Amino acid sequence: MALVHLTLVNQTAAPTISVCIANYNGEMMLVDCIESVLGQECIATIEIIVHDDASTDGSVALLASRYPQVNLLASDTNVGFCVSNNRMVAVARGRYVLLLNNDAALMSGALSTLLSASSRTQEPGILTLPQFDWHSGTLVDRGCLLDPFYNPVPNLDPARSSVAYVIGACLWIPHKLWRELGGFPEWMESIGEDIYLCCLARLRGQTVHAVSGSGYRHRQGANFGGNRPIAGKLESTLRRRRLSERNKTFALFLFSSRARLGIVMPIHFVGLAFEASMIGLVQNNWRQVGEIYGGALLSLVRRRRLLWRLRQQIQQSRNTSWISFYRCFKLMPRKLALLVRYGLPRIR
């Protein structure tokens, strides 16, 4: 195996792989992330693109001084995860794109594993690698399934590769397929955009798989907070929970079959109301409850025309059966399982 070559952006030969790293105040994590890419062994040429989302730390200076070979896109304003990735892929020249979080690092053989898996398929879809917790090294997931309300359910089965979606911390996709799908929906801002992209791909008959042979380490929650239990309790930030509840509600509306939508959506709103009441009573912070749960409902109402048009377009472009689409869903509500195990989440 030959050492990966960095392809400078001003060279004429197009790279095989474009590694796109969205960064905001990630100065303390960027070295681990970028060095994990530079240390890969793979018979391919790559380029590394970093979009800095108006960081207030020394990220830009670090990149300019230590990694001049990186194509740095420095934004004057904070635009969020969706816009950051769309901007990077717009200038990427690789046949394949790997979206990699600044709080993640590839393990040995990651790029060769992904490239090999794509090369074996005539029409490659979206891929990821097993995710391992940064601190403990324990397996977090092999991609994710979804429950009826579009909450992520970690796939831990080594025999299962077909999944509902893969998180944007390590998302591999052919450049051509990204363009066909239209990239991340920028009106989602952050959180849930990976669910949107993968559900759209699967409805159009594309595959979404987790491949074995390597993996990546991830500082879960380093950017948005939450996303992992701490001392046996679930914690989340107001911003993360607000975006998560809103965007999962959007996904539920956009990608559910007509038959399911009429059943699941009312149950979803009843569940949100119950959850909001419990958190409000226990934590006595009704302002947060209103922002999170009331915000999800109000956003659906305010964007009803956009969402209805988009739902019609998505449903009309469906190229697979609903039976096939729902094979990667679990019946057990994920929130109920977490409630039994950890109790109510604390929002800070």
Any key phrases for this structure?
348 residues; 17 strands; globular; alpha/beta; 42% helix; disordered N terminus; 12 helices; 6-stranded mixed beta sheet
Give an account of the 3D structure.
There is one protein chain. With 348 residues, this protein is α/β, with parallel strands linked by helices. Helices cover 42% and strands 18% of the residues. Strands 1, 2, 3, 4, 5 and 12 form a six-stranded mixed β-sheet that branches. Strands 6-14-8-9 form a four-stranded mixed β-sheet. Helix 7 runs parallel beside helix 9. The protein is globular. The N and C termini lie far apart (48 Å). The N terminus is likely disordered.
Class based on secondary structure composition and strand pairing: alpha/beta
Please indicate the percent range of residues in DSSP E strands (runs of 2 or more). 15-25%
Count of helical stretches: 12
End-to-end C-alpha gap: 48 Å
Summed over residues and divided by their number, the pLDDT gives a mean of 91
Set down the secondary structure blueprint.
Layout: E1 5-6, E2 17-23, H1 27-38, E3 45-52, H2 59-66, E4 71-74, H3 81-91, E5 96-100, E6 104-106, H4 110-119, E7 126-128, E8 131-133, E9 139-141, E10 144-146, E11 152-154, E12 170-174, H5 175-181, H6 193-203, E13 208-210, E14 216-218, E15 229-230, E16 233-236, H7 238-255, H8 258-283, H9 286-302, H10 304-316, H11 322-325, H12 334-342, E17 346-347
Parallel strand pairs: 1-3, 2-3, 2-5, 3-4, 7-13, 8-14, 16-17
Antiparallel strand pairs: 5-12, 6-14, 8-9, 10-11, 15-16
Helix pairs in contact: 6-7, 7-9, 7-10, 8-9
